[in-house]
Specification:
It is a single chain. The chain is α/β, with parallel strands linked by helices. It has a single domain (3-141), classed as Rossmann fold (3-Layer(aba) Sandwich). It is 47% helix and 14% strand. It has eight helices and five strands; from the N terminus they run E-H-H-E-H-E-H-E-H-E-H-H-H. A five-stranded parallel beta sheet has the order 3-2-1-4-5, sandwiched between helices. Helix 4 packs parallel to helix 5 (90-102). The radius of gyration is 15 Å and the shape is globular. The model has no long low-confidence stretch (mean pLDDT 93).
C-alpha cells in the first residue's frame, strides 16, 4: 500500500479531481492524504474514497504534509501547482517541496508526471528509494 499526498492550488483543484477520477482504480485501497480543501472536494466527488485530511494549506496543511514526509509517512506526492498564481503561503510551499526533494519522495507537479508515476511498475510493487545519509551534516551540528 502506498501513502500518497494529494494537494492542489485553487486554480488546479478541478484538474486534480479529474486526474483522481481517471485513476480511481489505481488509487482505491491506497492510503491517501490531502490538505483540507482538496481532501474535502475529493470526498465530495468520490464518496467512499478513504482520504485523511490535514488543515487547509494556508492554515498549516502544507506543513503537516511536510511533517509526514520528514517522518517517512508519505511515499508519493502529487501536488498540482499553479505556476502563474501568487500564493500567500509560498514559503510553506517551498518548504514542502524542499522536504520532498530532501527525503527523495517521488513527486509530480502536473498531470503528465502524475500519470507517469501512477503507471510505473514501482507504483504497484515494492519500491525503496535510496536514502541519503545526513550523518555528516548532523555530526557537524553537534
Amino acid at each position: 500500500m502506498k501513502r500518497i499526498g494529494l494537494i492542489a492550488h485553487d486554480e488546479r483543484k478541478e484538474d486534480l479531481l479529474l486526474w483522481v477520477g481517471k485513476n480511481l482504480d489505481a488509487l482505491r485501497g491506497e492510503d491517501l492524504f490531502a490538505t483540507g480543501t482538496t481532501g474535502g472536494l475529493l470526498l465530495e466527488r468520490y464518496p467512499g474514497l478513504k482520504v485523511t485530511r490535514f488543515l487547509s494549506g494556508p492554515l498549516g496543511g502544507d506543513q503537516q504534509m511536510g511533517s509526514h514526509i520528514a517522518g517517512g509517512e508519505i511515499d508519493l506526492l502529487i501536488f498540482f501547482i499553479d505556476p502563474l498564481g501568487t500564493h500567500p503561503h509560498d514559503v510553506d510551499i517551498k518548504a514542502l517541496l524542499r522536504l520532498a526533494v530532501l527525503y527523495n519522495v517521488p513527486s509530480a507537479f502536473n498531470q503528465a508526471t502524475a500519470d507517469f508515476l501512477v503507471t510505473s511498475p514501482h507504483f504497484r510493487g515494492e519500491y525503496r528509494p535510496l536514502k541519503k545519509s545526513y550523518d555528516a551534516y548532523l555530526k557537524r551540528l553537534s
